[in-house]
Amino acid sequence: MNKLTLKGLGKVFNGEDGREIEALRDINVGARSGEFICIIGSTGCGKTTLLRLIAGLTPMSTGQVLLDDKLVENLNRDCTLVFQQLSLFPWFSVQGNIEFPLELKGVDKSEREARVKELLKMVGLEGVANSKPYELSGGMQQRIAIARALAYDPEILLMDEPFGALDEKTRQKLQNVLLEVWKKKKKTILFVTHNIDEAIVLADRIIVMAPEPGRIINDIEVTLPRKRDRLTNEFIKLHIEIRNLLEVSD
Questions:
Q1: How far is 59 from 15, CA to CA, in rounded Å?
Q2: I want to staple 29 with a disulfide (CB 3.0 to 4.6 A). Which of 6, 17, 168, 242 is the partner?
Q3: Mean pLDDT value of segment 187-205
Q4: pTM of the predicted structure, to 2 decimals
Q5: Tens digit of pLDDT for each residue in 63-109?
Q6: What is the DSSP letter of 142?
Q7: Degrees (nearest 5) of the Cα angle 184, 185, 189?
Q8: 160 near 110, Cβ under 8 Å?
Q9: What is the mean pLDDT of residues 242-250?
Q10: For residue 193, is pLDDT > 80?
């Protein structure tokens, strides 16, 4: 049984001139529990819209979202979104940012502190609990955002190009951090990226999308053993396959 199932998902927006714009058409995807899926495609193919539909932040025009085969309506409280644009509270410390969802859940102070300590260790940021986010680097802030998302303890983690604004060295470091967190937490992850290498490094499966309207053109299972070496023939061959798919779809 799939953890998450998308059936015939579609979205139509009304343009400024009154014309309808079909952003997504007939999206059918199943994600198993603990599966890491990357979604890749050119700008305008509806990747972010797809995550927003799954989270219930944008109403769908057609189709269904099911969690454990149960229909999800309105806000999907079993999902948490992590964006490229950080949404950390600058007036809170790192501790306060990660504690925030736990406070909303009514978790007592001692347990909150223990959970924050565990999550900071998991993302490699022990010792910064009392810092303000703006005092830390972009890569460290993104680790905090991941820790805060995990504090919600979601069934599904939705990630919208979370490393897109980072330099390549920091990006690769955070890819490794995320993989370690994923192995420990066993969360189902849907991760949007424009970076082919990033998708191959992270994913169990890669969903390739095309624009106008946004649709799935391929669903590729990544069978390369972890930890994945970008310089192997198999890695390069898969990179070229995905690049060719994206070029044809534009």
A1: 16
A2: 6
A3: 96
A4: 0.91
A5: 999 999 999 988 888 898 888 766 788 889 999 999 988 888 888 88
A6: H
A7: 120
A8: no
A9: 86
A10: yes
